[in-house]
From TrEMBL:
SUPFAM superfamilies: Carboxypeptidase regulatory domain-like, PDZ domain-like, Starch-binding domain-like. It comes from the Bacteria. Gene3D superfamilies: Carboxypeptidase-like, regulatory domain. GO terms for molecular function: carbohydrate binding. It comes from Myxococcus fulvus. This is Carboxypeptidase regulatory-like domain-containing protein. Signal peptide: none annotated.
Length: 885
C-alpha cells in the first residue's frame, strides 16, 4: 500500500467521544483461493488512533474490512470499498459495550449434552458495494469458544449483530447455523453423530494398496485419509453424497457408486481398483485472435454434487500455461470436474462437467474473451452531474459485485470509468455513500470494447421501523426485512437484518415500496405482514411490521433410497391436483425442512422432493397432517457410445441428458463434456429422457430412451451435421419479448434480445420439442422436425398472458397485520380495478381474516363474477371482478 494510491481515514468513537489508542486493523480482500474456494485476506495496515481518535492508513482501490478494538469495548467492524478516483475514504467506527451469546450443545436424537464442543462465531458483514451479507472475514476476526463438560457455552464481549455459528465435536458431524442473532441466551445447538465411509483400495492386480490417498468430494469440501497396510480406509465426513477416489503414485481410481451417508451411519465395503490415471491438457488463447495466452492459471476441482453458496470445492490439480499457451495437468482420478481458467485482462472461463474415464486424456481448448471497459456519467433528475457517486459493475442475480472489477467514483463532472469489466451482461449500479438501494443499468459488454452509459440518480429518503412478533415481543431469532421498489425485479430488492432490538433502517431512492419481514428459520412462506408505502424525497417513512410464527408448519424429512437422510434435497409443494408451486425449500444436514402452509387454505397438498436424479412423491397430504417422510427412489444410470453416420472417428463431445417433467416441476438436466466416444452418466431421473450430443465441428445427434430407477440403460447416439432453430417471441399484441427463453429438449437457449429473436445452434436432426416461456407470459410448446444440416425458422411465436387456473382471479394475497392484503395481480387481469396494497375485507359477502381464507373464497365457477369489498387509503367500496374461464 502506497500513499500515492490513496488512503482510508479512520475515526473511532465510543460513548460519543473520540477513543485514543484504539487498535485499528485494515484487511484487504484478495481473489478466491483455489485451495479453499474462499476469498483470501491480507493485512493492509495496522496502527493506533491519536488523541482525536483518528488514524490514516494508505490503501489502494479495492474491497476491505476495517476493525477497531479498545479496552472495555466490543470490536467495531465495517466492510468498505475504496473506489478508483477517490483520494481519501472516510470511515467512522463506533465502539460499544460487548454482549453475550450463551446456550448448550446436545445430541439431536437423545438430547444428551455434548461436552467440550468447539464453537466458531463469524460476524456477518454487509458488503459496502452491495446489499449482500457475507461471512468472509479474516480468521483472526472470528470468535472461538468451547462448551464445558455439561455442554454449556458462554461467549462474552461480542459485538451486537448477526453471526454464523459453526460447532464441532469428536464423533459428531459439524453443524453450521447461518444466522444467529446476538445477544441471545438459551440457544440449543443439536448435533448429529458422525458419518463414516469405509472401504478398501486395491492395486490393478487386486493386491491391497498401502498408503494410497483417499479423497471424498461432493458437498463443497474435500475430506482425505490414507490407506492402512491392508489397503483399508475410514473417512469421517458430514452427512451427504460423495464421490470417493484414490491416488497412489501414477495410479488412480474411483468407486463405481456414489457414497450416500447419514448422521451416525457407516457405509462399509466401498471398493476402489486403481488403474491408469487420466489427464487434462490443452491450450489457452484469446478468443477471436487465436493468440496464445501465457501465464494463465488452470484450476481443477471436483464437480459438486450439491450446490452450496458459502463454500467451493478445493482444487485437486492445477497448471499454468506456457509461452505457447499450452498446459498439462495429470494424475486425475476418473470422474467429473469443474475447470476454471483465469488470465489477467480476460474474463475467467469456467467449464463444468469435464468428465474423464480411466486412462483418458481430455484436450481442452480454452478461448478467453478480453475484458471490456465502461465509461459513463451520473446525473440527477435535472440532468446535472453528480460527484462522489460510487459506481459498481454487478451481476444480475443477488446484486453481487463482479470479482476482479473495481468500483469507481464519479468526478466533478459526474464521469466515471470502469476498467477490466468481463464481457457479457453487466449491471452498472450507482449509489450515494451510505445508501442501500441504487440505480442499475444493464450494459452488454463486448470483448475489448468501450461502452457508454448514462445513469440518472434520483432523490432519496429513509425507510425505518421495528419488527415484532404478533404478541408484541421482539423476535429472538434472526429476521430479514425486505423492500422492493415497484416495477423492479425481485432480485433487485434490498434485504437487511434487524438489530437485536428489532429496529431497522435503510436509505433508498424515493418511490413506491413493498416492505415485508420474516423470521429466517421460517422464511417468507406464511403470509407475514406486508405494507406498501410511498417514500418522498428527503422524507422518512416509518414502517412497523409484525412477523408470525408458523400456524400450519409441515415438518418434512427426506430419506435417500438407502435410508440415509437426504442433505440439500429440494422439497416443493402445490395444492393437490394443481400445478402452481407455492412451497419450496431445501433440507438441512439431518434431511429435515419445515414448510409453512399458512397462506394456503385447508385443501390437501401435493408434496415432492428431488435430489439429483432421485425423487419421492406424496400426491395428497391432508391439511391436518404436520409430520411426514418422503422416501426418494434411486436414479438410473446411462451408458453408451457415440458414433458418426459418416464413419469419422469421435474424439470428444458435449452431452446433455434432460428429462422434461410435467408443469408442476422443472426441466432436469445434466451437462457433461467427455473425451473419446464413450459415456457413463450417474443419477439420471427415472422416466423418459433425451440424450443430446454435440461435437466441436457442429455434428449433433439425439436419442430418446427411458431411465429405470436403480438400473443401467444402454443407449447409443449417432451424430450427423447439425442445424439451427431460429425465431422471434412476441406477446399477444405482436410486440417483441425480451428476456424470454426457448428450451429445446431441455437445452436452454440464450435469453431473447430486445428484438425478441432467438437462435439455437448445433441442434441434432430429427424431431424436437420446443418450450417458450417468460416471467410475464404463458408457457407454450411446439414440435418440429429438423433436417440434416439445415436451419429452420419458426417465425413469430406468439405467447399469451400467464394461464390462470379456471375459477381463480389471478390475485396473490398476503397479510398487513390482521388485514388481508393484495400482494400482486397478474398482468392483464382486472385493469386498474385492483392494485397492490389494497386491503380485502370480504369476497362474495364472506369476511376473510387470513390469506388462506381469501384463497379459498377466491375460487369459484369459471367465468363467474366475484365481488370484493376492498379498502384503499380511507375509502371502502365493492369491486366486481371476473374469474378466469
Amino acid at each position: 500500500m502506497r500513499d500515492e494510491e490513496g488512503a482510508v481515514q479512520v475515526e473511532v468513537h465510543g460513548n460519543s467521544r473520540p477513543i485514543a489508542g484504539a487498535q485499528v486493523s485494515l484487511y484487504f480482500q484478495g481473489p478466491r483461493s483455489p485451495a479453499t474456494g474462499r476469498p483470501t485476506w491480507f493485512v493492509a495496515g495496522r496502527g493506533s488512533t491519536d488523541a482525536t481518535g483518528a488514524l490514516r492508513l494508505p490503501a489502494r482501490p479495492g474491497a476491505y474490512l476495517v476493525t477497531a478494538k479498545a479496552q472495555g469495548f466490543a470490536t467495531a467492524r465495517l466492510s468498505l470499498t475504496r473506489p478508483r478516483g477517490e483520494a481519501l475514504t472516510p470511515v467512522r467506527l463506533a465502539l460499544g459495550a460487548g454482549v453475550t451469546l450463551s446456550g448448550s450443545v446436545v445430541e439431536r436424537a437423545s438430547k444428551v449434552p455434548v461436552p467440550l464442543a468447539r464453537l466458531t462465531l463469524t460476524p456477518r458483514t454487509v458488503l459496502a458495494s452491495a446489499s449482500v451479507a457475507t461471512t468472509s472475514v479474516p480468521e483472526e476476526e472470528r470468535h472461538e469458544a468451547s462448551a464445558d463438560e455439561r455442554g454449556l457455552f458462554r461467549s462474552e464481549g461480542l459485538t451486537p449483530g448477526e453471526y454464523q455459528l459453526e460447532v464441532t465435536a469428536p464423533a459428531h458431524s459439524a453443524r453450521r447455523i447461518a444466522r444467529v442473532q446476538v445477544p441471545a441466551s438459551g440457544l440449543v445447538v443439536e448435533l448429529d453423530g458422525s458419518a463414516f465411509i469405509e472401504g478398501f483400495v486395491e492395486l490393478p492386480e487386486g493386491k491391497p494398496a498401502t498408503q494410497a490417498r483417499v479423497t471424498a468430494t461432493g458437498m463443497g469440501e474435500t475430506f482425505e485419509t490414507e490407506t492402512s497396510a491392508g489397503g483399508g480406509f475410514s473417512l469421517d465426513v458430514p452427512p451427504g453424497v460423495y464421490q470417493v477416489s484414490a491416488r497412489l503414485d501414477a495410479l488412480t481410481g474411483t468407486a463405481r457408486d456414489r457414497a450416500v451417508v447419514g448422521a451416525g451411519m457407516t457405509l462399509r465395503d466401498v471398493r476402489i481398483r486403481l488403474g491408469a490415471a487420466a489427464s487434462l491438457t490443452g491450450i489457452v488463447r484469446g478468443k477471436g485472435t487465436s493468440a496464445p495466452i501465457a501465464g494463465a492459471t488452470v484450476s481443477i476441482a471436483p464437480g459438486a454434487m450439491v450446490a452450496t453458496f458459502d463454500s467451493a470445492p478445493a482444487e485437486v490439480a492445477s497448471a499454468t500455461s506456457g509461452v505457447d499457451g499450452r498446459f498439462d495437468a495429470g494424475n486425475l482420478a476418473p470422474g467429473s470436474y469443474s475447470v476454471t481458467v483465469r488470465a489477467k485482462g480476460f474474463r475467467a472461463l469456467r467449464r463444468e462437467g469435464i468428465t474423464v474415464l480411466a486412462g483418458q486424456r481430455f484436450e481442452l481448448l480454452a478461448e478467453l474473451d478480453a475484458n471490456g471497459r465502461i465509461e459513463g456519467t451520473v446525473v440527477d433528475e435535472r440532468d446535472q452531474p453528480l460527484a462522489g457517486i460510487q459506481v459498481t459493475p454487478e451481476r444480475r442475480w443477488r446484486m453481487m459485485p463482479m470479482e476482479g472489477a473495481l468500483t469507481a467514483v464519479t468526478d466533478a463532472q459526474g464521469a466515471f470509468v470502469l476498467e477490466d469489466v468481463p464481457p457479457g451482461e453487466v449491471f452498472v449500479a450507482a449509489r450515494r455513500p451510505g445508501s442501500q438501494l441504487h440505480v442499475r443499468e444493464r450494459v452488454a459488454v463486448s470483448p475489448g470494447q468501450t461502452h457508454q452509459v448514462k445513469l440518472e440518480l434520483g432523490g432519496e429518503g429513509t425507510l425505518e421501523g421495528t419488527v415484532k412478533l404478533a404478541d408484541g415481543r421482539v423476535p429472538t431469532a434472526a429476521v430479514t426485512v425486505f423492500a422492493q421498489l415497484a416495477d423492479t425485479a425481485r432480485t433487485e430488492a434490498h434485504q437487511i437484518p434487524t438489530a437485536a432490538d428489532g429496529t431497522w433502517s435503510m436509505r433508498v431512492r424515493a418511490g413506491r415500496y413493498r416492505v415485508a419481514a420474516w423470521l429466517v428459520d421460517v422464511g417468507n412462506q406464511n403470509s407475514d405482514q406486508e405494507k406498501v408505502v410511498d417514500l418522498k424525497v428527503g422524507a422518512t417513512e416509518r414502517v412497523d411490521l409484525r412477523v408470525r410464527e408458523a400456524e400450519r408448519p409441515l415438518s418434512v424429512t427426506v430419506l435417500e433410497p438407502n435410508g440415509a437422510p437426504s442433505v440439500s434435497a429440494t422439497v416443493m409443494g402445490a395444492e393437490a391436483g394443481k400445478n402452481e408451486i407455492f412451497l419450496e425449500d431445501s433440507t438441512d444436514a439431518s434431511g429435515h425442512v419445515t414448510l409453512v402452509a399458512d397462506s394456503l387454505g385447508t385443501q390437501p397438498l401435493h408434496l415432492w422432493a428431488t435430489n439429483g436424479g432421485r425423487r419421492g412423491d406424496l400426491p395428497s397430504v391432508p391439511a391436518t397432517q404436520r409430520t411426514l417422510v418422503i422416501q426418494l427412489q434411486p436414479g438410473g444410470r446411462l451408458t453408451g457410445a457415440v458414433r458418426s453416420a459418416g464413419g469419422r472417428s469421435i474424439e470428444g463431445f458435449r452431452l446433455v441428458v434432460s428429462a422434461t417433467k410435467s408443469e408442476d416441476d422443472f426441466l432436469s438436466r445434466q451437462e457433461l463434456e467427455l473425451a473419446g466416444d464413450r459415456f457413463v452418466v450417474e443419477d439420471v431421473n427415472p422416466g423418459a429422457v433425451t440424450v443430446s450430443v454435440t461435437l466441436p465441428d457442429g455434428r449433433a445427434g439425439k436419442a430418446d430412451t427411458t431411465s429405470v430407477a436403480g438400473q443401467t440403460t444402454q443407449v447409443d447416439v449417432v451424430v450427423e451435421a447439425g442445424g439451427a432453430i431460429t425465431g422471434r417471441l412476441v406477446d399477444k399484441a405482436g410486440k417483441p419479448l425480451a428476456q424470454a427463453f426457448v428450451d429445446v429438449d431441455g437445452l436452454t437457449s440464450a435469453p431473447t434480445g430486445a428484438d425478441g429473436r432467438f437462435r439455437v445452434e448445433d441442434v441434432a436432426p430429427g424431431q424436437h420439442r420446443l418450450i417458450a416461456w417468460s416471467e410475464k407470459t404463458e408457457r407454450a410448446e411446439k414440435t418440429l422436425t429438423l433436417a440434416v444440416g439445415k436451419s429452420q425458422d419458426v417465425g413469430d411465436w406468439k405467447l399469451g398472458p400467464p394461464r390462470i387456473e379456471p375459477g381463480r382471479l389471478g390475485i396473490f394475497f398476503g397479510m398487513a397485520g390482521d388485514d388481508v392484503l393484495v400482494r400482486g395481480v397478474l398482468e392483464s387481469m382486472h385493469g386498474d380495478a385492483l392494485r397492490v396494497g389494497d386491503i380485502v375485507q370480504s369476497i362474495d359477502g364472506a369476511t376473510v381474516l387470513t390469506a388462506g381464507e381469501a384463497r379459498e373464497r377466491e375460487l369459484g365457477a369459471p367465468g363467474s363474477p366475484a365481488i370484493l369489498l376492498i379498502r384503499r387509503d380511507t375509502r371502502t367500496y365493492p369491486v366486481t371482478l371476473t374469474r378466469a374461464p
